[in-house]
Amino acid sequence: MKRAKQYPFLSLQRQRFHLNFENASSAANLPSENDFCRWAWSALKNEYRRADISLILLDEEEARAYNRDYRGKDYATNVLSFALNEGEILPDQFSDGLYGDLVICPQVVLKEAAEQGKTPEQHFAHLTIHGTLHLMGYDHIEDDEAEIMEAEEIRLMLAAGFPNPYQEDEY
Fold first, then answer.
1. What is the C-alpha to C-alpha distance for residues 120 and 128, in angstroms, rounded to an integer?
2. What is the rounded distance in angstroms from the CA atom of residue 92 to the CA atom of residue 26?
3. What average pLDDT does the segment 36-61 reach?
4. How many angstroms separate the CA atoms of 48 and 118, rounded?
5. pLDDT of residue 64
6. HEC sequence for the chain
């Protein structure tokens, strides 16, 4: 009788990374929790010993409320990132990890994917990576920061088997 294969990297991943996933969206045919976990892990695995991220999928009305209340922008956006340590000094037990929340609005993501000629999976992967990089401190407000962040997004997307997300449209 064959013995089941052991995958030590999965055990290591579970020890180092936890994704608290909730789908509170009415959208259909969305990527799985495992997909979101894989995409976020790919972005953070080389820089953090531990990570705990909550990712929630929200419909447009709720996503709009978050964007309005936290960013002062009264529209639903594709992804919002809230890092636990934003502007704070954390206690020692949190010093070696990444902790934060991602809010993704599937309706916006699906609309953008169609407009940009991308598959929904490709766009969800990109925005999960994009949001995770924001949690890690990457930003795109200044041109030099944007170049660094976009290069990392391109590298991670190519490694995941997706095309360059900035190849035709910049968003």
1. 12
2. 39
3. 94
4. 30
5. 97
6. CCCCCCCHHHHHHHHHEEEEEEEECCCCCCCCHHHHHHHHHHHHCCCCCEEEEEEEEECHHHHHHHHHHHHCCCCCCCEEEEECCCCCCCCHHHCCEEEEEEEECHHHHHHHHHHHCCCHHHHHHHHHHHHHHHHCCCCCCCHHHHHHHHHHHHHHHHHCCCCCCCCCCCC
Best CA proximity match to 152, nearest among 136, 142, 141, 86: 136
- Token couple for 39: 């995409």
Amino acid identity for residue 108 in this structure = V
Indicate the range of 16-30, 38-52, 93-107 predicted with least confidence.
Answer: 93-107
Average confidence (pLDDT) over 61-76 = 97
Please tell me whether the overall predicted TM-score, pTM, comes out greater than 0.85 for this model.
yes
Contact criterion met (CB below 8 Å) for 85 and 38: no
- Token pair listed for 122: 């490709």
Cβ proximity of 63 and 108 under 8 Å: yes
